[in-house]
Write a structure and sequence with these properties.
Elements lengths: L21 H9 L7 E3 L8 E3 L13 H24 L10 H15 L2 H8 L4 E5 L6 H6 L1 H5 L6 E9 L4 E8 L12 H19 L4 E11 L7 E14 L5 E10 L5 E13 L1
Antiparallel strand pairs: 1-2, 3-4, 4-5, 5-7, 6-9, 7-8, 8-9
Length: 278
């Protein structure tokens, strides 16, 4: 009898087969993970090769913090540089009585009208008389005046509005010190403060004896804190009791310079005026 040998079937690894060679089961069990391995079985009796899928590492995300810091420091540097330039080397100020200067003076007068002290005094006009500082001077007197002529305009004494109390015989002056009056950058010169305060005190002394000319005999000033340029201030001048020196007939006056916004006292002064001159 002839016995015919049939060829043995090939073993194939399939997910649907329940019968698997031991080596295949071991490989599947060892490499079963999130990324399944690839198993190639081509030839019977040959050890299957296992090829793992390569894993690619994600590139780290770049932080925007250095860019943000660089932009912020650049902005701060440009801002500080501009502030430093305008403080040390400010732009040129307009010439007095020029078109630009007249526009600025008009704007300063509007700002003065909005000050609380001006609005408060205007409510009581029965006690206070409002006028400009040099509106009662002649043209010749104005031309010879340091404060009325040389220091006029928006860059100087842009506003100098006075309120006179007839009952208490005291004066309140709302004044603006411009940028050209600065001694140290941004700070009004002490001589300008002394001049404007002495003028307000002289008017108080002259009002006490209007038929005579007041001559300054003594003037003392105490600077308390810096007075910044391009800001509004208030000068309060009144008689300093005892107001009259019986022996000489002189009049004592005191004054105080205040910040129009904060009310901080910047300077104080006392003076003695001789009104015996006709």
């Amino acid at each position: 009898m002839l016995v015919r040998h049939l060829p043995s079937p090939r073993l194939r690894v399939s997910s649907c087969c329940t019968l698997r060679p031991p080596i295949v089961q071991t490989v599947i069990r060892l490499f079963s993970s999130a990324i399944p391995p690839t198993i190639n079985v081509d030839t019977p009796g040959q050890t299957p090769s296992v090829q793992s899928t390569p894993q690619f590492k994600s590139q780290p995300r770049r932080s925007l913090r250095p860019l943000i810091y660089a932009t912020a420091f650049l902005f701060l540097g440009l801002t500080a540089g501009q502030l430093f330039r305008f403080t040390i080397v400010p732009p040129p100020l307009p010439i007095p009585s020029s078109r630009e200067d007249l526009i600025l003076v008009q704007a300063l007068n509007k700002d003065a009208d909005a000050l609380p002290i001006v609005q408060e005094l205007r409510v009581h006009l029965e006690d206070w008389i409002e006028h400009e500082a040099y509106d009662r001077q002649s043209h010749a007197e104005t031309e010879m005046s340091l404060s009325a002529n040389i220091m006029k305009g928006s860059r100087g004494l842009g506003v100098q509005r006075q309120f006179w109390n007839r009952k208490d015989r005291r004066m309140i002056t709302v004044i603006f010190y411009g940028g050209a009056l600065a001694g140290w950058p941004g700070v009004t010169h002490g001589g300008v403060l002394a001049t404007t305060m002495e003028e307000s005190m002289e008017r108080v002394a002259a009002s006490n004896n209007p038929d005579r000319i007041g001559i300054t005999q003594n003037f003392n000033i105490k600077y308390i804190q810096p007075t910044h340029a391009n800001r509004f201030y208030i000068i309060r001048a009144e008689l300093n009791e005892p107001a009259t020196d019986v022996a000489t007939g002189s009049i004592r006056v005191k004054a105080r310079l205040e910040d129009a916004t904060t009310g901080a006292i910047c300077a104080e002064a006392t003076s003695l005026f001789n009104t015996n001159q006709e």
